[in-house]
Amino acid sequence: MTHFGQNPRRGTVDRRRARRHVPKTAAHLTIHARRRALEYLGLDVTEDELQQLAIRIQKNEETFFGRESGNKTRWLVKLQGKECVAIYDKARHAVITVMTTEMFTETWVTGRAG
Hints:
- By secondary structure, the chain is α+β, with helices and mostly antiparallel strands.
- The chain has one domain (23-110).
- The chain has helices at residues 26-41, 47-58, 101-110, and strands spanning 6-7, 12-13, 63-67, 72-79, 82-89, 94-99.
- The strands form 2 sheets. Strands 3-4-5-6 form a 4-stranded antiparallel β-sheet. It has a two-stranded antiparallel ribbon with strand order 1-2.
- β4 and β5 (82-89) form a beta hairpin.
- The longest helix is centred in the first third of the chain and has 16 residues, at 26-41.
- It is globular, with a radius of gyration of 18 Å.
- The protein starts with 5 loop residues before the first strand and ends with a helix.
């Protein structure tokens, strides 16, 4: 059985048929962050609230506490009155995801979620 993009005769990926990587945009990240806020925090967050959070992060009004990579930073924030961790993407000026402080601590200490 071959996967999409593989050439059955050669057994390698046929670049002409392979799916192209779709770059993430700020809109994709906002959708992801809204879903995670609902799933992890039980909050129905609007796009506007996430944009306001991004502006507060840009102005350094939230608590910075680490860096994920060159473009991604971790922030301790309040979202609708709940304290949580937000991951912010400097390149796209958007919040990537939010999680509970307990989830972040568990991931940070063990290196994996769950």
